[in-house]
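Deliverable D5.2: sample structural annotation.
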Amino acid sequence: MSSKPKIRVLVVDDHILIRMGLKTISEIEPDIKIVAQVEDGEAAVEAFRQHRPDVVIMDLRLPGMDGVQTIQALRKEFGAVRVLVLSSHRTDADIARVIQAEAAGYLLKDMPLARLVEAIRAAHAGRQYFPAEIANRLPEQLRQSKLTPRELEVLQMIANGRSNKEIGDAFGIVEGTVKVHVTNLLEKLHAADRTQAVTIAVKRGLINLQ
């Protein structure tokens, strides 16, 4: 009689203690196997290419590409990747970015390991996993924010005082494309200008003022 295939998991976190802690899941949960552990987004893409895991557990704050950018890179190459974001931050802006990136869930690093195990199984089954502490903050964002990940990035750059040209240079796109993003986000936020868009977005917790 053949055993049930294990859920294959890739861990992406630049803190070795977190990676060591997550590695114990393989030892205590017979249906889960950590197939690889890497420290940054670029390595995550390569590891996914090599191991094709069922679920990815990823820190939001990573050197180089951050968690959201890495999710976008994975989805661009591999399609509907199941990513659980693991973070020590619970800001509305971070939660909004993760939702926009279509992650399978958002967990906090101080949560019990059993929660993470539940999340892994849920993501593998095609479900989303947002614990109560996070889920209670979702409805407002889902109603008010229909911005794409790129529009959120442009909006954050605007909040940081960047011009359209500077934004275009940062993302490797022409200034005309930036203007299209700005027009779209103004319309979606019902804002009259860039300043009002930033004000609305900050109040809704979609971006941070840095």
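Annotation notes: The two ends are 58 Å apart (CA to CA). The mean pLDDT is 85.
The annotation will be released with the project's public dataset once the embargo ends.
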